[in-house]
Each structure stands twice: as structure tokens, then as C-alpha cells.
Amino acid sequence: MALKIGQDHARFRHIVRGRIRKNLRQYISKGELIGRKGKDLVSIPVPQIDIPRFKFSDQQSGGVGHGDGEVGESVGDGEGAPGKGKAGQGEGQHIVEVEVSIDELAEILGEELELPAIKPKGESRLNQDTARYTGIRRVGPESLRHFKRTYREAMKRQIISGTFDAEHPVVIPTPHDKRYRSWTVTNKPVANAVIIYMMDVSGSMGDEQKEIVRIESFWLDAWLTRQYKGLESRFIIHDSVAREVDRETFFKTRESGGTMISSAYKLCKSMIEADYPHSEWNIYPFHFSDGDNWSMDDTLACVGLMKNYLIPWSNMFAYGQVESPYGSGQFIKDLGEHFKDDDRVVMCEIPNKDAIVQSIKTFLGKGR
Fold it and tell me: What is the pTM of this model?
């Protein structure tokens, strides 16, 4: 029975997974999943799935009833119980809430967008102590007592001593019979990564533009968390001055002021120097803007920071330009002139929410 239940559950999960994959682009473009995110799980509304349930047989074989009534008396009106409104036709849509882990959601994303697995930089590895159970010993905490080995030792002792009765097989372990799992600690290399999000919050960046960045960052986090054992996210906002903020402030800061992009790149450089040695970390700077900058001199300062520091230190440098009715969109053109042959720089224009799917594939599709 337990095996049958497990098979049914696995089949149902397979159906749910197929529905999620089918509607994934819709979930991404509408940002439905972000507000449904828990600590490790996402609650997803999946339409048109019938939950297994008991149903009465269609065979009218009669039966015993209870209560008042006479033979031949009609039960009900035949048209439905009285109520407000008229009876409708057609089957209603069944919406089921299912919980999916972030890791499984990232796997579905990778399958749908055909994203390659990321190969961490060769020297970007940190060491982590990992305990592994490798043997049996005579001493240890009771929580690690190996019951099968303990009773085997007790039975061996009773058989050798002649106290074991095969007709009444009672095995009573003594402290000498107890066996415990033993472990060894190994130093295992694990790859760690940091995403440094930078966003323009000048006067031309409105709520719609920030919502695009918010949805994009959710999926970038999901994919990169699956690729790396440890992932940190840091957030920088800038107008003419840059500062580090937490995730909530990053998406809720009201837009104002002019734009000086180099201020964000300088802060990103300082952050990496202070906390993320580029020989030990996989580094992913993501900058989102509408493409307006204060001056060409500041754009050239950004190019210098990218060439000399940010690009050599990072797995890739990503720039996403969201479309704004007030922005000129010039910055992506300037970067294209300087880095058109550098595959470490990935640039993408994101005119609206429907373009988010393609931008994710553009950013992550090289497997860096």
C-alpha cells in the first residue's frame, strides 16, 4: 500500500511539474511567484488539475434511506436548490496550490530555457568540513547507536555462551554489545558565489522598471543558488551617489535625482576588494539602468573601471537596460562600442516584462 501511494504521489508530482513548465513563461512575466515565496518553497497556482478523490458509483442499485417522506415523493426540485443568481453551464476551472522547492523551480527553469550548468572558476574554491559516517565503534552517543549491529553482537554472545534459546529467541544486549556509528571529517572544496545587484534609481526609473528588475533578480538568484553551495546577494542603488542597501530597500526606494553610473561601479569595486577575493569567489555584477548617464566623461570612467577591475575579477559582467519613456538608452550603445568583442560582458535590452524570459537566457546561457 505504501509503495502504491508513493507511485501515485510521484505521478502527481510529474503532472504538476509538467503544468509548471508549460506555464513557466507566464509565471515569469507576471511575477506571480515572488509574492508566494517562503523560506525554501514557492506556492504555485496550477490550473486544471483534478485531485484524486472518492466518487459515488453511477450504478443506481438502490439503498436504504432515513427521514420523513413517502414513496414516490420527489427529492429536490430537479433544477438545483434555490439561491441567488441563475445556474451556469460548463465546468469550472480548478485551481490547485502546490508547493515547489526553489531548487526544483530552478531546475525547471534550466530545462525550459536550456541553460547550461555553470563551471566555477578554477581557483574560486573555499573549503568546508564535511562529516561522513564510515564505520562502527564500541563507544559513542546513544543517538548514533547502530541497532542492527548491537543486536547481532548480543546474539553472537548468547550463542557462544549457550544461553540462546531458538524456540524462545529473546536477545538482551549488554553494554559490551553496543555498537555505534563512527565518522570521519573530510575537507571538501565547495564553490561560493556572490551576486552584486546595482540599480539606477534616478528620476527616469519608475515602478514598472523596478518591477522588471525585481522579477529578474528572483530568477537569477534561483538559478545561481542551484549552481553554488553558497550564494550571497548584495545590493547597490545609485543616482548621482551610490550606497549599499538591503533587498527590501533596493526595490522600494523612490526614484529621484540625476545619474552618475560610475559611483555604483566604484562601490562595487570596493565591496569586492573588502569582502570577496576574486581568486576565491565567483563574482556576478548585475547592473540595471534605463541607459541615461550624466556625461560621456562618466561613461568613460565606467569603462575604465570595468576594463581594469570589474571584468577581470568577475565570471561575467551583466548589464540589463530597461526601457523608460524618459531615458535616452545611450549607455548600452557606449558599452557595445567598447566591449562588443568581449564575451565576458553580457548586455541585454529589456523593454517590458515579456522580455524577461529572453534576458534571463541571454545572461545565463553561456554557463559562466
Answer: 0.64
Distance between CA 154 and CA 283 in Å, rounded?
56
- Delimit the domains of the chain by residue range: 1-51+95-114, 128-187, 191-364
Determine if residue 90 is left, alpha or beta; phi over 0 gives left, psi from -120 to 50 gives alpha, anything else beta. Answer: left
Alpha-carbon distance 108 to 85, whole Å?
43
pLDDT at 254 > cutoff 60: yes
How many CA within 13 A on the CB side of residue 319?
27
Q: Could you report the per-residue pLDDT of 142-154, keeping only the tens digit for each?
A: 888 888 889 899 9
- Report which residue type is found at 263: S
- Nearest CA among 196, 160, 346 for reference residue 278: 196
pLDDT reported for residue 4: 53
Beta-strand relationship, 126-137 and 317-322: unpaired
Residue holding cell 508530482?
13
- The mean pLDDT of 4-16, rounded to a whole number, is 55
Q: CATH homologous superfamily of domain 191-364? A: von Willebrand factor, type A domain (3.40.50.410)
Please answer whether residues 319 and 363 qualify as being in contact, where contact means their C-beta atoms are separated by less than 8 angstroms: no
| Nearest CA-CA partner of 88 in 97, 79, 96 | 79
124 and 279 Cβ atoms separated by less than 8 Å = yes
The answer to whether 287 and 264 have CB atoms below 8 angstroms apart is: yes
150: alpha, beta or left? (left if phi > 0; alpha if psi -120 to 50): alpha
Written as one letter, the residue type at 173 is P
